[in-house]
């Protein structure tokens, strides 16, 4: 495994823990959005994560008032990578199984290549083009049965997931072109705060006033907010400092695979040939496309449940 010079057993354990945290988060979010309306779930998730991350940044001496040059990044990341991604995946999870949702949501690296070619004038290699083709084939393999069966609700869910993955890719390309004044950890609580602020009026307008929710909703938020969001963001920044970007991408591919297994065991999600075939094709596509996006792509912007 290609690792940085400072990577040790502690960081390998942390990376493994990060994969497990995100894999578990998908079935947990499925339970959560069944108890809490998805936009309210997203708002509460980032409200909790913000309340965790500001003290964390303060304790670590990373809490700063962002410079003017960092605010475009904060707004783009908070709006697209966090708020929109959370809203779209939450809505999709109301109609789709979490394993399938995780596989499509984690297809983000495939869409970085064309966006970077358009926005950053980076050449697209044949390897990246093959990766994009394999990724698209994987998407059609997973969504195809719903299309053939005429399940309109599920097809809308798949479109939402692809939109979420594309918005994350936009954020990654934006981050790659940004010159940071402060560290990623210093900016993270502000990004999460922006996400919460944006999701609040959306939830109120679309879903109406929030109502009391049951214990399963509370437990889901207790996991997704502080663990799968605040802790996971810190963990990916920390591990990203010690592992090569290609290593991070490959390691995090284990999250959707493990998520499928956990979803099957806990929620009874069916594992069929379309899901396995789609997973294999998308993972192949990411492996091919990662070489294109590899060394320059910030690890911390790459994944979030």
**Series of secondary-structure elements, N-terminal to C-terminal:** HHHHHHHHHHHH
* Helical coverage, percent range: over 70%
Radius of gyration: 18 Å
The total domain count is 1
Structural class, from secondary structure content? mainly alpha
The largest sheet, given as strand count, sense and whether it forms a barrel, is: none
Structural write-up:
The protein has 305 residues and is mainly α. The protein has one domain (9-301). It is built from 12 helices and no strands. It has helices at residues 9-35, 38-59, 71-93, 98-105, 108-119, 126-149, 152-176, 184-207, 215-240, 245-252, 254-267, 273-293.
Short description:
By secondary structure, the protein is an all-alpha fold. Helices cover 77% and strands 0% of the residues. It has one domain (9-301).
Fill in the keyword field for this structure.
305 residues; mainly alpha; 12 helices; 77% helix; 0% strand; globular; disordered C terminus
Chain-wise SSE layout:
Elements: H1 9-35, H2 38-59, H3 71-93, H4 98-105, H5 108-119, H6 126-149, H7 152-176, H8 184-207, H9 215-240, H10 245-252, H11 254-267, H12 273-293
Helix pairs in contact: 1-4, 1-9, 1-11, 2-3, 2-8, 2-9, 3-7, 3-8, 4-11, 5-7, 5-12, 6-12
């Amino acid at each position: 495994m290609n690792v940085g010079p400072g990577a040790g057993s502690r960081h390998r354990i942390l990376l493994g823990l990060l994969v497990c945290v995100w894999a578990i988060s998908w079935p947990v979010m499925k339970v959560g959005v069944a108890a809490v309306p998805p936009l309210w779930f997203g708002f509460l998730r980032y409200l909790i994560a913000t309340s965790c991350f500001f003290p964390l940044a303060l304790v670590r001496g990373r809490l700063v008032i962002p410079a003017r040059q960092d605010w475009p990044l904060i707004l783009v990341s908070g709006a697209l990578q966090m708020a929109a991604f959370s809203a779209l995946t939450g809505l999709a999870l109301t109609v789709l199984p979490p394993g399938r949702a995780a596989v499509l949501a984690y297809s983000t690296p495939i869409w970085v290549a064309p966006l970077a070619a358009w926005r950053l004038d980076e050449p697209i290699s044949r390897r990246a083009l093959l990766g994009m083709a394999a990724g698209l084939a994987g998407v059609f393999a997973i969504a195809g049965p719903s299309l053939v069966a005429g399940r309109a609700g599920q097809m809308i869910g798949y479109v939402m997931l692809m939109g979420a993955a594309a918005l994350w890719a936009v954020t990654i390309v934006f981050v790659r072109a940004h010159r940071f004044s402060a560290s990623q950890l210093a900016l993270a609580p502000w990004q999460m705060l922006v996400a919460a602020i944006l999701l609040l009026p959306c939830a109120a307008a679309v879903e109406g006033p929030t109502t009391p929710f049951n214990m399963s909703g509370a437990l889901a938020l207790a996991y997704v907010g502080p663990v799968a969001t605040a802790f996971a963001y810190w963990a990916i920044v920390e591990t990203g400092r010690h592992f090569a970007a290609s290593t991070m991408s490959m390691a995090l591919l284990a999250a959707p695979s493990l998520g499928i297994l956990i979803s099957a065991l806990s929620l009874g999600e069916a594992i069929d040939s379309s899901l396995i075939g789609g997973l294999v094709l998308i993972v192949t596509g990411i492996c091919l496309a990662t070489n294109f996006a590899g060394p320059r792509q910030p690890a911390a912007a790459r994944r979030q449940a």
